Amino acid sequence: MHAWPASEVPALPGKGRDLRIHDTATGGRVTLDPGPVARIYVCGITPYDATHMGHAATYNAFDLVQRVWLDTKRQVHYVQNVTDVDDPLLERAARDGIDWVGLAERETALFREDMTALRMLPPRHYIGAVEAIPGIVPLIERLVSAGAAYDLEGDIYFSVEADPHFGEVSNYDHEVMRALSAERGGDPDRPGKKNPLDPMLWMAARDGEPSWDGASLGPGRPGWHIECVAIALDHLGMGFDVQGGGSDLVFPHHEMGASHAQALTGEHPFAKAYVHAGMVALNGEKMSKSKGNLVFVSALRRSGVDPAAIRLTLLAHHYRADWEWTDEVLREAVERLGRWRAAVSRPDGPSAEALVEEVREALADDLDTPRALAAVDRWVSLQESGGGTDESAPGVVSRTVDALMGVAL
């Protein structure tokens, strides 16, 4: 599966700072020191309704992580999946009377278009669950052989007790985990499971649903969590730098994925930091496909909204914060974009050397984009008041905003 084209990232003078970021597993900030190649895995979409603002906010956060790393002169090995076969996708296709493969391809193509328009840097590897199945099956067989998985009426389940570190990503107690499992695709009440929290690794073929050859597992399709584990281990290995996604993936997805990988390899941790973006609401409720309260990037673009303004709307909120989409927050972003573009269009302006360092420091400090925007706003205010004659300054500001925040002025 191919990703989308990369926009050019301007080189800035000097060198950026190492990223300090909030790690869900420890509950505090960690300073990431990835070495010459930083490794990041971000969970991708289930392509039946893309790309809403919750998606955009999540991928904006991890685009910023990449940009901070690139500014430190590192390379970035970024991997993202597409869950192109799953119950919600099949249910939507059945509801609409369309082919599930066609639906997945259509929505994935739209997602690529939106990511391109928003100038999100593409992953080096963009992998669909379906194409990963040949690598998933052997991992499940290994877990079965090791006694870390078991058969229940043809379905294969992972035993969470096989990983002594289970629970260390979310730090939730059993009852919270059980409730979230039921809410987010698990089946804690199924009779016969060794532990209500045990997640499915391989679903035996059901009538009317797609299935694949599972070798010793029999025909079926993979569970949600093992998909990402197989892709991450194949392309990044254990102990990669950041596992990313929305905060709704903390449990069960990232918790279970970590345990799958740790049981498979005997190594810990799966990722050095677990980083999660907040949720975006509309009309007082979290945007969700089930509720249908979604604002789509593509719809905004069709209505004439500049993608740079959409991105500035996202940047106005700290990535870990939950916030609400309104016409007002978009209007403020449109106005900010207009002021910034007018300011950098002038032939000279106040010196921007300090601004570069302010933006770098803000983003290295747990991706503090509101502080970064405020720094640019201050420079723009000085520019509007005629406060400088540095002919290089407008270009420096434009390149800084582009390189570090992905906004083209």
| Mean pLDDT value | 96
What is the strand arrangement across the widest sheet? 5-4-3-10-11
Percentage beta strand: 15-25%
CATH class of the largest domain: Alpha Beta
CATH superfamily of the largest domain: HUPs
Poorly predicted runs of 5 or more residues: none
Question: Which characteristics define this entry?
Answer:
Four Helix Bundle (Hemerythrin (Met), subunit A); four-stranded antiparallel sheet; 13 helices; alpha/beta; 2 domains; 43% helix; five-stranded parallel sheet
Could you please describe the fold and organization of this structure?
The protein is built from 13 helices and 14 strands. By secondary structure, it is α/β, with parallel strands linked by helices. Strands 5-4-3-10-11 form a five-stranded parallel beta sheet, with helices on both faces. A hairpin with a 2-residue loop joins strand 6 (149-152) and strand 7. The protein is globular. It starts with 19 loop residues before the first strand and ends with a helix.
Condensed summary:
The protein is an alpha/beta fold.
Topology:
Layout: E1 20-23, E2 28-31, E3 37-42, H1 53-71, E4 75-82, H2 87-96, H3 100-117, E5 125-128, H4 129-145, E6 149-152, E7 155-158, H5 174-183, E8 200-204, E9 220-222, H6 224-235, E10 240-246, H7 250-265, E11 271-277, E12 280-282, E13 285-286, H8 297-302, H9 307-315, E14 323-324, H10 327-344, H11 353-364, H12 369-384, H13 393-405
Parallel strand pairs: 3-4, 3-10, 4-5, 10-11, 12-14
Antiparallel strand pairs: 1-2, 6-7, 7-8, 8-9, 12-13
